Amino acid sequence: MAEGPIHFTLIDPDKSPSEVAGRVAAGAVAHGSHAILLGGSTGMTPSKMGATAQAVKTAVPVPAIIFPEGPGSLSPEADAVLFMSLLNSRRLDLVVRAHAKAAPAVRALGLEPIPLGYLVIEPGMRVGEVGEVDAVPRDAPDVAVGYALAAQYLGMRFVYLEAGSGAPAPVPVPIVRAVREALSIPILVGGGIRSADEARQLLEAGANALVTGTITEEEGVGPAFRGILDEVRRARGGD
Length: 239
Ligand code: 1GP
Description:
By secondary structure, the chain is an alpha/beta fold. Helix content is 43%, strand content 18%. The chain has one domain (6-235): FMN-linked oxidoreductases (TIM Barrel), CATH 3.20.20. It has helices at residues 18-30, 46-59, 92-109, 125-130, 141-153, 173-182, 196-204, 214-219, 223-235; strands at residues 6-11, 35-38, 64-66, 80-86, 112-120, 158-162, 187-190, 209-212. SN-glycerol-1-phosphate binds next to strand 8 and helix 8. SN-glycerol-1-phosphate binds at residues 10, 162, 165-167, 190-193, 211-215.
């Protein structure tokens, strides 16, 4: 992210069998995506995660990073794991306790832990429900800044602003801008990004990484996905 913003393609091992995952990863990386996130919000097992990670690693030379729903998501076939606290959850296990169970496994499996504060913004979609969050209201950048700064002050290396997979609109631009102004660590933004225009606005507001999932699940590597990647390339100073 030192060289400008990057793009993550999210693949759900539950929805995309290994051969599909490999094909999506290959297409996404060919169009400029920088890394593959592997995750879904329910029903993950180490064997499903392992098979998908292996297919992705065979298909592309970029990092395969687990976006976990819990300790059952861990597999040594991936390179790294978002070691994330769901900052605005009412469930203590998602704020920290699941981590105490997962940490020894992360170490034993040789996965690189990426310390990250995960913050759900309205509407939050499924992760907001399962995660029992007090979602950040869309008109409350100050609330987002409080959580995000707290994550930075706790030593987390990244903050992920999440509107929820399939959200009808991405995280509001004023929230991204306010968090970017307050923080010195990189900000990932995901949930509901469907167009080049939305991508450009989020990048202009200071997003350091964009995450998209639904768009490739629904359309594969189509024109909208390519438009989003064009905006990331432009923000990095490419043509
Ligand atoms: C979900 O932020 C990601 O965790 C991606 O969201 O599926 O809406 O692109 P979409």
